Amino acid sequence: MVDSSEQNNAKFVSYRYSNKKQKLFGFSTKQSLFFFGMIFVLYTFFSNQSFALGKYDKQYKINLVRSSKTEIPRCGHFLTQLGNGNVVITGNIPLVGRGENDSNIRQIEIYNLKTNKTKKAGFMNLPSCMHNAILLKDGRVLILGGNKMPSADYDIAKRIQIYNPQSNDCETIVTEFSLSSRPICLLENGNVFITIQDDGHKKKYYYCIFNPNNNSLNKYPSPESIISVLKCGEDTIVITRSYSFSRKNINDGFYCTPCVFKIYKYNTKENNFIFLEKIEHPFSTYLKAFSLNDNEIVICLSRYEKHRQKIWYEYPTNILTFNTKTKQTKKVGGTISDPLNNILITREQEILLFHTKEIEIYDIKTNTSSIIKKPYFLNTYSYGSQGETIVLNDGNILTIGGYSPWEGYLKNIYVYNLKKRNLK
Known about the structure:
By secondary structure, the chain is mainly beta. 10% of the residues lie in helices and 47% in strands. The chain has helices at 4-21, 29-47, 103-106; strands at 23-24, 27-28, 60-74, 78-81, 87-90, 107-112, 117-123, 132-135, 141-144, 159-164, 169-174, 179-186, 192-196, 206-211, 216-221, 225-232, 235-243, 248-251, 254-256, 259-267, 272-281, 286-291, 296-302, 317-323, 329-333, 340-345, 350-355, 358-363, 368-373, 389-391, 397-400, 403-404, 408-420.
């Protein structure tokens, strides 16, 4: 028979032991969880700030030239610089609960670089976001494609909008073709090269030439699926993509179908294609192409990572250069691995690869790559829009709007540049 005092002592010891188990560094379990949770939140916040840590080098620095605010929060928009230096802001993603009937989606703003202010300037006839825009030779802005609004009774891919900054009027042209918002190119004669959305089942590919003088749209067959059209000197270069029939073992038994990129010179007068070169690549994601000079273009392609599940999340880019005269292709680099938001090229022939938390600066001339931390004013999350950041005519970089998990759509305007430090 157990004495009652022994039972009480046993209960006391058990209570004291259980109480000790619930404490860490003198705090209860809840207090400890709260404490470490706050440390994690603070670490996450400060890690997004402009600190040069670890892999980030100090070769470049970001100089903020000026900042301002738009009148309307923007996300999924497109920036087009006019001949006078002003920037036209078109498009917006509908806010949750307000729908596409919100006038802020159709509202056009113009940012004046000299006064550092924006003003409202007319409306688009149709709401649009994640679209493309191009400056025509007569000073008007052609707006093309974009995401279809949920309740729209029309196909935005079959609509072309032309905005006139002088009169603030917007004209809508209805087409019979489903046009692709990318790629698009302004030709020397003032016409616009526009691709038509592929019909993958029929294996037929087309493009069209739009004449803004009479709003005519003529359809022509394409050799393959067009992924890029750009000016290189006096030539118009077209890049197509197809797939090889042979499957290759890339890594650890993972097979993929190699992608074949073909480069053509487009004859504007005859509306035909002159074959230049073929490039085979192990993965199909094409990123962007730019003109370096009158004879060279640079092509940014992606490449897979070690494990299949990381393909869409970690893809260091392959950067290639192609000479349209000598038909020589060179692999010149690319190292970063993180989902890309945007790719730009500066007047100094430096490729800027924008990522969620960092920027890779690849110098084509020296074949070197630098990775810098995004400054606090650029730490915005984007829906992948390619139009929220552009390189201005004066060489500076302009970023407008974007998305932040904490603030939603943003009004921020930043003009900045990247300069090399003198490390000698």
